[in-house]
Amino acid sequence: MMMQSFVPGRPAPDVAAIRQRIADSDISARLKALLDELQRRPQQRFKSGRRKAADPNLIHLLNRTSFGVSPADQALAEQLGFEGYLEYQLSADQIDNTGLEGFLADLLPSLAMPYQEILDRLEDDDFSPAVDLIVGTIIRQLFSPRQLFEVMTEFWTNHFNVFLFDGPVQYLKTGDDRDNIRPHALGVFGDLLRANARSPAMLYYLDNYSNTRFGPNENYARELLELHTLGVDGGYTEFDVVEVARCFTGWTIDPRADDLFAFESREHDDEAKTVLGVELPAGQGIGDGEQVLELLLEQPATADFLAAKLCRRFVADEPPATLVSAVADTFRVSGGDIPASLRTLFLSPEFAASSGQKFRRPAELVGSLVRNLQPTEGSDYFSVIFRELETLGQLPFFSVPPTGYGDRQSDWLSTNSLLSRWNIGFSIAYGEVPVGTRAGGDGEGREQPMADYFRLDMFELLGGARTPAEIVDQLVDRILHAPVGSADRDALARLAADGEPSSVPLDLSQAVAAGRSVLSAILASRHFQNR
Amino acid sequence: MNGQGIALRGLAVALLVAGPALAFAADIEVRVLSNRFLPEAVSLTAGDTLVFQVEQGRHALSGAAQDGLPGLRSGTLRPGDEFRLTVSESAGVYFFESDGSADMRGAVEVLNTDPGFAVDTRVSAGWFNPAASGQGLLFEFVPSTGQLVAYWFTFDFETGEQLWLIGVGPVDGARAVLPLQRAEGGRLDDPRTVTKPLWGELTVDFADCSNATVYFDAREPQRSGRVALERLYLSDLCQ
Prior knowledge:
Oligomer: heterodimer
Strand content of chain B: over 45%
Distance between the termini of chain B: 32 Å
Number of helices of chain A: 27
Radius of gyration of chain B: 23 Å
Number of strands of chain B: 18
Distance between the termini of chain A: 48 Å
């Protein structure tokens, strides 16, 4: 097996080791310097009674097309309008991202390394492209101006999921992410599928590298049909799985190839096959697998399956059938054009009617805390972000099964997870809540409060609001961008007023304390937990 | 030393400000940590002394000069150092910061303990915001009950329709807190009962008999804010 020649014996690092590596690095300090350069924080001015209400449709779009609504993105969206901002985000390559990418290239050089260079450096003790990829992905999700691109990158990463620490995947995923997922995340689905079929990370993860005519392995064939294209109800049979597996015999990994992909004709089953009722003649070689991919791309079930999955991500756990059908039609007519399909989705009345119906997944929850609140970064700032994503269960590339991370509320909402979500909100809002010893987890030293890592400027958040009612309205407007209903507003005002009238101005110290209480309640509320 | 506001001295040196406030002066500690002040906001009265206790990091504390106040400059402080700042008689909010960490800000609010103005019949007049002429309030102080009556003639936030709000509430010094009701359903000189559902709440803070600020909390639609008011006419000068 060609693969055996470079599978290293080095074990995958565990999460604690990754956490420690991040804590021991200068990532937080360098990220802080970058953010100081990239995003001078706008001062939040309190405008008495005359705040221009945020356009709810625009906020809805921002919530669904980003990892959290930042004040800068909101301002840009208000300037461009709904369709203008959507087109801006769909044309991601037109968005200047040089500052962030230059920073990442300097901080995490392995992200740009070709496969061969990564393989050559595997014996270096301080070399861990997997950790670099995790760090780079989180930073991009949190700080890239190409937010919809990053959302779609995460979507397709999940769609073509590989577990990062499944053996050599930790060295192969960097190239897969850079060369196979990102170039096509807002491109054409067929290109994604073709690239993924040759991806050494996928070839290893689903065992196709060992799929030969002498020892067939059906794992990739099965997931190709069930998870990547047709869907479990897509009309294929067990016979099709076997036949597709035969078509991909000989697709393997060769460390001598630049892209590590090789087709070993001697290991390919070159007899005739039948897939989905279509006969593939004998002697096609690599053309068998290529024809299967084209056949799958043409299937209406593929468009239906992907449309449903996109609608589930962006609209509702159980999306309206009318919308799924419309998106599938666009997908088919456009030849799998992803921006066209997304355009149909986001401009639909079904999307407009779906505000607040999606539960924030952990990456979106943490992203919203960072992007919306814009905390001042303390030392070890990045470690806290990593740890919270770990606590909530959505570190990038950590999903073990090929299904990837779930996209329904039921996948994420449980008593324990909700408690963790509340704890994160409370610790950020109150600041002085201890969140353990060093975020790096060395188990020593004093209990450090969240504010050591992640500090809010309450003066900026309050923007001059001083009465309980002003404080509530200011924070609801700033964090949620939409009214919360009379009952919830009254409850928040009572919390802020602490028995006093809601229109009486508080002393500054009282106002700050009230602001922290209200903020904690908002972050714990369904209004923030949903999007 | 500028007598209007904050007085500063170097390490471990307090400036005693002469005056009656000294009888109640207190030291109020502010911990200086690596990236923040704790507490971040302090409300105190003239004569009190802020005591900055540096626990982590190196910090040069500063505060921009404002309202005629001199800037705050502590020089570099290290863990274990203390810096004291005594405030003189001036109400207001002053921000200070440290060069030890980006955006590290704190604030001190000097509360005005002067009983100053007390509401009486001198406030009974028309009041308005000169920047929003065409709407305003009528206040009427009722000495026999010690209550303030407010009539607010304004416009709806969203529809722009004329809005007439009425409130009555007790006075406490320079402040009155009034529930506001919205008069609805009436017709000119029509005996039918006007309905008056609760619209929200209004707090009126009188600085003197010519200047006031109202803080409102509207329940539906949900809106809060404040309006700075001036007395509309001054036929009777305040004394």
